C-alpha cells in the first residue's frame, strides 16, 4: 500500500521573501486575487508541516521609489512611499492567509498602530513560536535600504534557518536567462561569488549579512505551483546560496 506520510521539512523556521511583483500575476499593476490566494495556499501547506513561517513582502507592484528617485524625487521621500506600498501588500497577504484559516500578524517598521503592530523582535519571535504567520512590512523602516536587506535583517533577528527568495526564474544564472539563451543556472553558489560576479540575487548588503552568519538563501521560481513546499522539504530545485555546497 502506498505511503501517505508527508515529506519532512528540513527547516523549522523560515523567512519567505516575496517581491511585490510576485503578487501581480499576469496583471501590469496591483494585486491579483488568484495569485495571492495560490501563494497563501502554499504557505498554509508549509505551515501544516509544522514549519514556523514569516514573510517579507516588497512593494514594486504598487510603487517604485528607486525609479522615481532617478527622475528627480528626493530619495528618502521616495523610499518612504515605497515602504507604505509594502504595508498595503502585507495587509492584502494577511487577508488571503486568514481566508486559509491561518493566524497572522503584520508587523511594521513604521508605526501605524491602527493597521499593524510595531516590529518588536521578541514579540515577533513569540508570534512565530505560537504558530502565527508574521508578515514584516515597511522594510527596515529606513530609506536607502531595500526589502532584500529587510529580509536578511529580520531573518537573522528571529533566528530563521533559511531565507526562501521567490522569483520569476528557476534560480541564479550566469546571466539574465531572459536575454541570454546561453545562460546556465547554478545549483549552488557561494556568497562571495554572488558579490564578485555582481549577480542580482539580493543586494550586496543583504548578501553580506547572510554571509556573516552563514544563513542559506534558496532562490526558486514562485510561478511553479508547489515550489515553496518542495524547497522546505529538501527537494533540489533552484539555487542555494551559502558558504559551502549542501550535502546531497
- What CATH calls the topology is Carbamate kinase
Ranges where pLDDT stays below 50 over 5 or more residues in a row are none
- Per DSSP, the total helix count is 8
How do the helices and strands follow one another from N- to C-terminus?
Answer: EHEHHEEHEHEEHHEHE
β-strand number = 9
The largest sheet, given as strand count, sense and whether it forms a barrel, is: 9 strands, mixed
**Helicity level, as a percent range?**
25-40%
Q: Taking all residues together, what is the mean pLDDT? A: 92
CATH class: Alpha Beta
* Strand-pairing-aware structural class: alpha/beta
Number of domains: 1
Widest beta sheet: strand line-up: 4-3-5-2-1-6-8-9-7
**CATH level-four homologous superfamily name:** Acetylglutamate kinase-like
Q: What is the radius of gyration computed over CA atoms, rounded to a whole number of angstroms?
A: 17 Å
CATH architecture classification name = 3-Layer(aba) Sandwich
Shape: globular
Amino acid at each position: 500500500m502506498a505511503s501517505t506520510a508527508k515529506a519532512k521539512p528540513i527547516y523549522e523556521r523560515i523567512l519567505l521573501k516575496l517581491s511585490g511583483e510576485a503578487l501581480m500575476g499576469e496583471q501590469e499593476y496591483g494585486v491579483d486575487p488568484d495569485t495571492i490566494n495560490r501563494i497563501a495556499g502554499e504557505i498554509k501547506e508549509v505551515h501544516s508541516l509544522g514549519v514556523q513561517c514569516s514573510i517579507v513582502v516588497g512593494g514594486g507592484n504598487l510603487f517604485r521609489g528607486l525609479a522615481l528617485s532617478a527622475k528627480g524625487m528626493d530619495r528618502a521621500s521616495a523610499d518612504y512611499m515605497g515602504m507604505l506600498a509594502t504595508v498595503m501588500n502585507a495587509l492584502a497577504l494577511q487577508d488571503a492567509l486568514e481566508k486559509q484559516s491561518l493566524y497572522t500578524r503584520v508587523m511594521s517598521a513604521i508605526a501605524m498602530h491602527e493597521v499593524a503592530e510595531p516590529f518588536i523582535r521578541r514579540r515577533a519571535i513569540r508570534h512565530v513560536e505560537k504558530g502565527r504567520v508574521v508578515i514584516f512590512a515597511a522594510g527596515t523602516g529606513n530609506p536607502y535600504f531595500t526589502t532584500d536587506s529587510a529580509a536578511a535583517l529580520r531573518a537573522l533577528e528571529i533566528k530563521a534557518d533559511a531565507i526562501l527568495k521567490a522569483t520569476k526564474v528557476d534560480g541564479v544564472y550566469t546571466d539574465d536567462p531572459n536575454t541570454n539563451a546561453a545562460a546556465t543556472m547554478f545549483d549552488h553558489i557561494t556568497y562571495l561569488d554572488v558579490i564578485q560576479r555582481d549577480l542580482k540575487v539580493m543586494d550586496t548588503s543583504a548578501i553580506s549579512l547572510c554571509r556573516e552568519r552563514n544563513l542559506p538563501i534558496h532562490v526558486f521560481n514562485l510561478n511553479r505551483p508547489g515550489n515553496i513546499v518542495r524547497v522546505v522539504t529538501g527537494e533540489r530545485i533552484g539555487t542555494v546560496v551559502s558558504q559551502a555546497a549542501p550535502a546531497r
